[in-house]
Design brief:
CATH architecture: Alpha Horseshoe
Shape: flat
Helix content: over 70%
Number of helices: 3
CATH topology: Serine Threonine Protein Phosphatase 5, Tetratricopeptide repeat
Distance between the termini: 31 Å
Number of strands: 0
Length: 58
């Protein structure tokens, strides 16, 4: 389907919920940052992709 804007919207909603429910260093939050980074990469926005992948590592 490749509806990247919709995927990004859904991952951002997911991140918002997880930020409220989970501690900052929880691994599931890192996974969500990585997922958002992947979507940005697929959309060709490599700077944002790198930024979110860095957040996943920290």
């Amino acid at each position: 389907m490749k509806d990247y804007p919709k995927a990004l919207e859904n991952f951002e909603k997911c991140l918002s919920i997880r930020k409220k429910a989970l501690p900052e260093n929880h691994p599931i939050r890192a996974t969500t940052y990585s997922d958002i980074g992947d979507v940005h990469r697929l959309m060709g926005d490599y700077e944002k992709a790198l930024s979110f992948h860095r957040k996943a590592l920290n």
